[in-house]
Design goal:
SH3 type barrels; 2 domains; 6-stranded mixed sheet
Length: 169
């Protein structure tokens, strides 16, 4: 089973055990619905524990989530650095949508099939999602993840074809 990270626990919030999570998901409203199940992943001992969502709110870049199983700030302090995860399920995606984890590591090519680099990270900016592409011995470049720049995405072959404009590289 493959998991997707929703964020990393940074601190407690308030006195009821609400967790402040540095968010890495754009689907918080969907993932943290009341009664939803998510997983607490501890990278130190590699254990996962199921948690049940009570309430959620977002204040960029943080998600504030209250879980049934965690009731005090002291419990949260013990969880700092742990991750909140869900099962990866492609049926959660809309058409022409992708998990960030699927885009990372994809080769980026131009319309002439010339390799330009590899997706190093997917970054969220207020205007749009952007791919950070690393290149050998050259600075990274950024490609807005919008139809004007992204021609095709082939996750099965880990390849993204982009339209290159002057100044992009």
């Amino acid at each position: 089973m493959e998991y997707l990270s929703l964020g990393k626990i940074s601190d407690s919030f308030g006195i009821d055990g609400t967790i402040k999570i540095f968010s890495t998901t754009s689907m918080g409203n969907k993932r943290y619905k009341e009664g939803s199940k998510v997983f607490l992943y501890n990278p130190q001992n590699q254990e996962r524990k199921e948690l049940t969502v009570v309430k959620y709110r977002h204040n960029s870049p943080f998600d504030y989530v209250k879980f049934i199983e965690i009731t005090t700030p002291e419990e949260v302090k013990e969880l700092k650095g742990c991750f909140i995860e869900v099962y990866k399920d492609n049926k959660d995606l809309d058409k022409d949508s992708y998990f960030y984890s699927d885009l990372r590591g994809c080769k980026v090519i131009n319309e002439k099939d010339e390799e330009l680099g590899v997706v190093k990270e997917v970054e969220e900016f207020p205007a749009q999602i952007t791919l950070r592409v690393s290149r050998n011995n050259k600075p990274d470049f950024f490609v807005p993840f919008i139809k004007e720049f992204i021609k095709t995405v082939d996750i099965s072959h880990k390849k993204i074809t982009i339209f290159v404009i002057e100044g992009l590289l």
